[in-house]
Amino acid sequence: MKKFLNEFKEFAVKGNAIDMAIGVVIGAAFGKVVTAIIDIFLTPLMEALPKMENGGTGFVGSLVAFCGVLVEFILTALVLFLIVKAINKAKGMKKKEVKPAAPTTKKCPHCMSEIDIKATRCPHCTSELK
Question: DSSP assignment, residue 71?
Fold first, then answer.
C-alpha cells in the first residue's frame, strides 16, 4: 500500500498532472467570463435584429444561441492557447542549454590511441603531432 501511495504522490506532483489541473480550473473560470460577456453584450445586440414575421423569434433565438456558443468557443480556445503558449515559453526560459565540455583528449592520427589534447608527441607510438 505504501508503494502505491508513493507512486500516486509521484504522479500527482509531476508537472503534467498539475498543468492539466490548472488548465481545467482556468478553462472553467474563463468559460464563465466569456458566457457573461456574451449574455451581457452579444445577446442584446443579436436580439435587436428585426424579428421574423408574425412575431416569431424561433430562428433569431436559435441564431443568437448558436452565435453565442460559437463566440464562446473561439474566445476560450484563443485565450487558452495564449496561456499555454506563455507557459511553454516560461518553461523554455528556465532551461539553459548546457554547453558540452571542451574535449580533453584527442586521437593520434598514426596509432589512433587517446592522448592529452595538449600533447605534441604521442606517448604510444612517439610520432610528432601538429
Answer: H
